[in-house]
Amino acid sequence: DVPGRAARLAFARRGPDARWSALDRQVLRDLGWALRHLLSFAAQASALRGLEEQLQFALRSLPMILWVTDARGRLVVAEGSGLTQLGLRREQVLGRSMEDVLGGTLNLSELRADLAAGQERRQEVTLAGRVYDTQRVRLPRGSGTLGVAFDVTDLVESRAQARRAQRHAETLLDLTQVMALTGSLPDVTRQALEVLLPALPHSWLVLWFRDGPLLRPLVSCGEQPAAVAQWQRQGVPLTDLFAQRLLAAEAVQLDPVDLPSRLRAEGLHGALLLPVRAGETLMVLGAYRREPLAWTPVERDLLSVAAQVVQVSLERRDTLAGLRSAAVTDPLTGLGNRRAFESDLREALARGPLTLVALDVDGLKAVNDTLGHARGDDLLRGVARVLAGVVTSGDGAYRVGGDEFCLLLRGAPGQIPDLDAAFAALAGEGFGPAGASAGWASAPQDGQDPEVLWQLADERMYREKARRRPGR
C-alpha cells in the first residue's frame, strides 16, 4: 500500500526450474519496503507542495499576515498581503523585533508571559486604521513563535453598524411607546428626551415654548455647561434671525461659526433646532453639542421622531382641552352651559357667600316669529355678550336653557348689575323691546342648597317677568 494511491508490486521469475529461495524472499521484502517508503515520501512532498501553494495563494489573496520569530524575538518569516496594507515590505521587517516594527501597539510583556506558560495568545489590535484579529503560539522547544493576523475591519464595522441599527430601532420603539402616554406635556416630553439622549453623544436637549416675545425652556435633559444653561434660561427673543426661521416652520442647524464666541468658549459647539407646531401653539425641540461633532442622519431621524412625539402630545392636549371645553360650553353663545353652571355653583357655595341671578330673555319668541330663528340666535348671542360684559373676574355667566341664563356673583349680596341699562343697547341692533327679566337668591341668607337657591331665584325671576308683562 502507498499513501494517497492504490498500487501493487509484483515480482516474477521465468524458467521451469525457477524457485524462490528464502534469501530471495528477504531481498524482495526489503525492496518492497524501500519502494513503498520512496513512493510515500514522494506523495508527502507533493501534498506539502500543494499545501504550500494553497498557503501562498491565501497569503496573496486574503488580507492576512503570517510571521515567525526566532528565540530572540526577531522576525524570520513575514508573508501576506496585509503587509502592503500596513505600508510594509517583507525585506523591511525581517531580522527586526516586533517592538521595532509595531512600536507600542502590542502589549508584548503580557504576550511573552502567556507564551512562556504555553498558552495560545489571541488579541484584537488596530494598526494603521485597520483592525486585526491576531493569534500567536509558541514553537516547540522555545525556538520562537508563530503568528497569524487577519484583517477583520469590515467585519468589526458591520457588527458595529448592526449594533447601531439595533439601538436605533430600540430608541424608535421606545419613542413610539412614549407617544402613547397621556400625561402632562412636560412629563411626556421629559420621558421622550430621556429616551433620546443616550442616542446623541455629548449632547443635551431642550424643549422651548413661546412666552410672549421670547422662547423659553420648558424641559431640559442632559448635562449642559452652567453658563450656557443660564443664557438659555433668560430666553431667546423672537426677533432673533434663527427664531424667525423657526417661526416659519424651518429647521435650523447652528454650526460653530453661527454661535457667539462666548458660548463656544463655554462649551457649546453646535445645535439642531426643530419647530413643533400644533394649532396656534409653537414649540422648539433643540439638541445641543458639547463637542464639535457633526449630526448624523440617524441622529436627525431620531430627533425628528422625538419632535413628532411632542407634537402628538400637544395635539392630544389641545384635543382633550377642546373636549373638556365643549362639555361645559354652550356652542351658540360661548358661555358656560348647564353642566358648568351646576358644577361651579357647588364649588362656589363651598368657598363662601354668593348671589345667584336667574334671567329669562323677553321678546325671543316675537323675534323668532317675525324675523326668523337666525335673528333669534343673534339675540341670544347678544344677550350672552351683555352678560359677559357685566360680570367681573371670578364671576360667571351661563346659558342653562333655550332662553334662560344665570349669573354667579361671588361675595356678599350687593348691588345687582343694572341689567336694563345693559340690555338697552340691544334695542339699537334691531331686536325691538327685547330684554331680560331677572330674579336672585343669595347664600348663605337664602340657604346653602344649590337646588333651593336656583328654585328661589327662578321664582323671583318669574314674578319679575309677570310684573314686566305689558298690561300689568
UniProtKB/TrEMBL annotation:
InterPro entries: Diguanylate_Cyclase, GAF-like_dom_sf, GGDEF_dom, Nucleotide_cyclase, PAS, PAS-like_dom_sf, PAS_fold, Rev_trsase/Diguanyl_cyclase. Residues 352-472 form the GGDEF domain. It holds the Pfam family PAS. One of its GO terms (biological process) is regulation of DNA-templated transcription. Gene3D superfamilies: 3.30.450.40, 3.30.70.270, PAS domain. Residues 51-98 form the PAS domain. GO terms for molecular function: diguanylate cyclase activity. GO terms for cellular component: plasma membrane. PANTHER family: DIGUANYLATE CYCLASE DGCM-RELATED (PTHR45138:SF9), REGULATORY COMPONENTS OF SENSORY TRANSDUCTION SYSTEM (PTHR45138). NCBIfam families: GGDEF. This is Diguanylate cyclase. The lineage of its organism: Bacteria, Thermotogati, Deinococcota, Deinococci, Deinococcales.
